[in-house]
Amino acid sequence: MTQLNFWAIFVAALVPLIMGFIWYHPKVFGKAWMQEVGLTEEKMKGSMIGVFVFSVILSGLMAIFLQFVTIHQFGALGMVGGDEMNANDSYHAFMKDYGMAYRSFGHGALHSFMAGFLFVFPLTAINAMFERKSWKYTMINSAYWTVTITIMGGIICGWYAVDGFHWVTQK
């Protein structure tokens, strides 16, 4: 139950790319973002395959981290030293009673949204202030990442099966 779900990680790692295509499209926030960062369509031309591939890899790292933010059962495993095979009876009793508690898309989305608002937004804002970027720039990028990791966290927390495509139905 507390194993990494590589299917969920892979699908969640694609979310930033998909959301980026939508969010930074010229008809959404793309023109405003390009203006804020000083880019032109001419500067944006060229092969992006390396950027896309490396972005998915880095997004995979984010997805792995989000499992620890959204799935509370990882914390229970950490309390016994991280070794499920040698865990004590109280750990196994806890997992029997609460092993799938709070495993839903909504729960994962909530915790990821909180991470976006309470961590990503301040981090982006601090960098933007030192880089002398505008609040418009800060809000475009912070909102993108908050929405993106909210969806990623929902996928990761709600998609519980390591061996397939199963979703938890909250009691």
What does the secondary structure layout of this molecule look like, with pairings?
Blueprint: H1 6-23, H2 26-37, H3 41-44, H4 49-70, H5 73-79, H6 89-98, H7 105-130, H8 135-158
Keywords:
disordered C terminus; 8 helices; mainly alpha; 171 residues
Model description:
With 171 residues, the chain is mostly helical. The protein has one domain. The chain is 72% helix and 0% strand. It has helices spanning 6-23, 26-37, 41-44, 49-70, 73-79, 89-98, 105-130, 135-158. Helix 1 crosses helix 4 (49-70), helix 1 runs antiparallel to helix 8 (135-158) and helix 2 (26-37) packs across helix 8. The longest helix has 26 residues, at 105-130.
Low-confidence stretches: 167-171
Whole-number average pLDDT? 86
Strand content: under 5%
SS elements, strand count: 0
Task: Report the span from N to C terminus.
Answer: 17 Å
Tell me the overall shape: elongated
How many individual domains? 1
> Please, how many helices?
8
Radius of gyration, rounded?
Answer: 19 Å
Helix content: over 70%
The largest β sheet comes out as:
none
From the helix content, strand content and strand pairing, which structural class follows?
mainly alpha
Instruction: Write the H/E string, N to C.
Output: HHHHHHHH
